[in-house]
Amino acid sequence: MTPNRLLETELAFYELHKKEWIPEHETKFIVIAGTSIAGFYTDYEAAWDAGARQFGAESPFLIKQVCSVEPVYYVY
C-alpha cells in the first residue's frame, strides 16, 4: 500500500460512523484497524496499548480522537 493511501479505510470508517459515536464517546480516542474497533479510550496512551495488543505494534491502525468539530493544525 502506498503511504498516501495508508489508513484510508480506517479514516473513511471513522467519518461514516462519527455522528453515532459523538453522543457517548466525544473526546475519547478510538482505535480502528480496517473496520474493526479495539475500543474507545480516555487517553492516547491507553488507546495505543490497546491497538498494539489487539492488532500488533507493527501493524497499521488508526488512533483518532472523536470530535464533533475537527481541530485545525497549522504547520509553518
Describe the fold and architecture.
With 76 residues, this protein is an alpha+beta fold. The chain has one domain (3-65). Helices cover 39% and strands 20% of the residues. It is built from two helices and three strands. The chain has a three-stranded antiparallel sheet, with helices on both faces. The longest helix is centred in the first third of the chain and has 18 residues, at 8-25. It starts with 7 loop residues before the first helix and ends in an 11-residue tail after the last strand. The mean pLDDT is 94.
Major sheet: order of its strands? Answer: 2-1-3
Strand portion: 15-25%
Distance between the termini: 29 Å
State the shape.
globular
Helix/sheet category: alpha+beta
Mean model confidence by pLDDT? 94
The tally of beta strands, per DSSP, is 3
Residue windows where pLDDT falls under 50 for at least 5 positions: none
Q: What is the number of independent domains? A: 1
Rg over CA atoms, rounded to whole Å, is 12 Å
Specify the number of helices: 2
Fold blueprint:
Elements: H1 8-25, E1 29-33, E2 36-41, H2 44-55, E3 62-65
Antiparallel strand pairs: 1-2, 1-3
What's a concise summary of this model?
The protein is an alpha+beta fold and 76 residues long. The chain contains two helices and three strands. It has a three-stranded antiparallel β-sheet with strand order 2-1-3, with helices on both faces.
Features:
single chain; 76 residues; alpha+beta; three-stranded antiparallel sheet; 2 helices; 3 strands
